[in-house]
Amino acid sequence: MKALSVQGEKAMPGVWFDELAVGQRFEHPIRRTVTETDNVLFTTMTHNPAQLHLDEEYMAGSEYGTRIVNSCFTLGLMVGISVNDTTLGTAVANLGWDEVRFPKPVFVGDTLHIVTEVLELRASKSRPDAGIVTFLHQAFNQRGELVASCKRSGLQRKRPA
């Protein structure tokens, strides 16, 4: 069991910058089955009227045969699932997402699991109490197929002295 990070009086499950190592992997225990509500709510909340997310009849004639889940939902879910084990309470800021890829579609009913790897660590030049970490997040469906990946850079707190 991972020890909780402590900042002030609050205990947090995130990992301090100086506890991370290049190559470190997190097999996140939370799995999530994507629902109809997830897709429709996210798609309408973000004002995305694309037929491929909302129109079953239109998509019945497509190569997929059914609607596909909004990829921005998949990206958000993938990163969100990683937070508890990596950055919850220890992140200062998200700095960016790079190389976002969706090699296979996600469908309503797919169950996703997430794996994160630490790719790079470097001290912050402007913040002696923090460092910059680059994570590789990957989402896999229930068949073990890679459905999404991205590199995410963030400013992460170092353990307080």
What does this structure look like?
The protein is α+β, with helices and mostly antiparallel strands and 161 residues long. The protein has one domain (5-34, 71-157): Hotdog Thioesterase (Thiol Ester Dehydrase, Chain A). 22% of the residues lie in helices and 39% in strands. The chain has helices at 36-45, 51-54, 56-60, 71-86, and strands at 5-7, 10-12, 25-33, 91-101, 111-123, 130-140, 146-157. The strands form two sheets. The protein has a five-stranded antiparallel β-sheet with strand order 3-5-6-7-4, covered by helices on one side. Strands 1-2 form a two-stranded antiparallel ribbon. It is elongated. The two termini are 23 Å apart. 26% of the residues are buried.
